[in-house]
Amino acid sequence: MSAENTKVLYGLYNDEEDLKGAVKTANAAHLDIMDVFTPFPVHGLDPILGLKESRLHYLGFIYGAIGASFGFLAMTWIFTSDWPTMYGGKPYWSVPAFIPITFEMTVLFAAWGMTITFYTICGMWPGVKANSLDLRITDDKFCIAFDVTSASDSTVDNLKGFFKNTQADEVNVKMM
Amino acid sequence: MSQPVAAVRHILIEGNKSYHNITEDLCSPTEKAPTREWIIAFSLASAFLALYLFAVCWTVWKGIGEWGANRSINWAWDITNFVWWIGIGHAGTLISAILLLFRQRWRTGVNRAAEAMTIFAVICAGQFPIIHMGRVWLAFFIMPFPNTRGPIWTNFNSPLLWDVFAISTYFSVSLLFWYTGLVPDLATVRDRAKGFRRKIYETFSFGWTGSAKHWQRWEALSLVLAGISTPLVLSVHTIVSFDFATSVIPGWHTTIFPPYFVAGAVFSGFAMVQTLMVITRKVLKLEQYITINHIESMNKVIVLTGTIVGVAYLTELFISWYSGYIYEQFAFYNRVFGIYWWSYFGMMFCNVVSPQVFWSRKIRRSIWWTFFLSILINVGMWFERFVIIATTLARDFLPSSWSYYRPTWVEISLFTGTIGLFFFCYLIFCRVAPVVAIAEVKAILKVAGDQYIGPDAKNGQNEQVKHAH
């Protein structure tokens, strides 16, 4: 990991409803939230955080299409050009018999492609050290984090005031 | 909260849990020293696994001649076991994928363990076709790649090769689905752990932080994986049934096989989930997560699929009579009243008659009945595969090659050995990972049951619902 050079001010909430309320308050006050961390996917959080819908499923479609083409074209090439073999008097290019494998290749490519993409864009791999602000975030705390590396004291005070107003359970500063 | 919840849905998680309680309850089995029951069960499973390894070595060293399989009955216990395990391996993905798409939220209590079960069952299933090859060191011949043997490619028109693709795809996609679901929970275990244990969970949780964007992508990925796993799970047993249905053996080449195999797979898979869940919830004290309502829901699926399977059995008999084709008629007459009549009646009793008791709500909600019937159904489904394979082959085209099949100790050891392998994997899983999906349970904690207005609704719920309407 790189050196710890981002100063983060974060507040912990006890409930997802408090969290959502706080995010709305922050939006109204034009506070620039760095990230929000939760123990489980909180529904209704994405729109108020302004997160666009994930485009992962478009990629899934593309990977699937690649898998289908690869499977079908490979079988076609093998059985019509590379090594045509007669099985039970059937045509060399027996399309119906290729369908099961084409289908499986579609699913295989879509699933692996999407999963690998998911871990890559999230920066997650075996051995990546989690940069957790608080260990209880994976348990029962809901966290809003602000980047205050180059923030003035008044901004920090403003943010602390925000956490106080929105009933954050704890407010801390951490370098990460 | 934006998703619809049936107004009559029971609460899913009992005991008024807080988020921290859930973490505590579900992580603690991985943190404590193993219990005495676990050690006994694990030793037993390991003993059977050792027996399995011994029987595999014996088979490889001495050859397939050590089995009772012969020229007429060349698919015997091995392929029976293969189809049986593959069938068991269907419930996990069905629960995770199809029930996710249908927004059946009760699945969160059981999906993790059921998916793990799927993976272990597919591992067990995969053993048999490979051992059956005899020369296991040539198993790589099934992989199509440009090779120095001609190149001789595999036959892409063969259902046996479709099987290779279907099962390996199914295994790897189930593994991805399961593991991706597991990552946030491993992070929960990681954040509670210390020292060396923490290091291990750090590696396996891939640096999960719980960032909102990651959760959003995680959900998108889960949904699409569920979407593509649904046709996948249906395709796998369909293709397994093609091994039989595309052959020219009377009794096998029937178009009813694909749906009938899929229904049977769901049936046996749910039965195995019940067997495991009834024990797991007791031993790990998860009664408030895997509730009687879960067991009842699964029993409803069992009675439905058991009845579908029963209709399929009767349809087969009717069609063979109606075909007016004597070879077909003989195949089925022989199946019911032939040398293996006991396996046919065993199958009928276990699979069709016995699950009908689940029409009674009281029995559906009884732990002991559920456990007893789940075992009976597993036995019945094993009989089904044996009936299809052995009775059909024992009376083939030439009466001079009619034969009878008896397993040898090697085959029995291989079969019981894979049960050991299965439980070996499952018991390790119970120790190292949360058996109930922690994050998913937390996500449904508040939503589920909020609108339930039945007699044992939580305080104030009835009021809320009245206001909502």
If you had to describe this structure to a student in words, what would you say it looks like?
The complex is a heterodimer of chains A (176) and B (469). In chain A, strands 2-3-1-4 form a four-stranded antiparallel beta sheet. With 176 residues, chain A is α+β, with helices and mostly antiparallel strands. In chain A, 48% of the residues lie in helices and 12% in strands. Chain A has two domains: 7-52 and 129-175, Alpha-Beta Plaits (2-Layer Sandwich), CATH 3.30.70; 56-121, no CATH class. Chain A has helices spanning 16-28, 45-49, 56-82, 95-121, 153-165, and strands spanning 7-13, 35-37, 142-147, 170-175. Chain B has 469 residues and is an all-alpha fold. Chain B contains 17 helices and no strands. Chain B has helices spanning 19-31, 36-62, 77-88, 91-101, 111-132, 159-192, 195-204, 212-245, 257-283, 292-323, 326-337, 341-353, 361-364, 367-394, 409-432, 438-445, 461-468. In chain B, helix 5 (111-132) packs across helix 6 (159-192). Chains A and B meet through strand 2, helix 2, helix 3 and helix 4 of A and helix 1, helix 6, helix 7, helix 8 and helix 16 of B.
CATH class of the largest domain in chain A: Alpha Beta
Give me the CATH architecture of chain B, please. Answer: Up-down Bundle
- Strand order, biggest sheet of chain A? 2-3-1-4
Secondary-structure-derived class of chain A: alpha+beta
- Distance linking N and C termini of chain B: 16 Å
| CATH homologous superfamily placement of chain B | Formate dehydrogenase/DMSO reductase domain
The pLDDT mean of chain A sits at 86
Shape of chain A: elongated
Characterize the largest beta sheet of chain B: strand count, sense, and whether it forms a barrel.
Answer: none
Helix fraction of chain A, binned, reads 40-55%
Strand content of chain A: 5-15%
Number of domains of chain A: 2
Outline the low-pLDDT stretches of chain A: none
- Oligomeric status: heterodimer
- Secondary structural class of chain B: mainly alpha
* Percent of residues in beta strands of chain B: under 5%
CATH top level of chain B is: Mainly Alpha
The helix-strand sequence of chain B is HHHHHHHHHHHHHHHHH
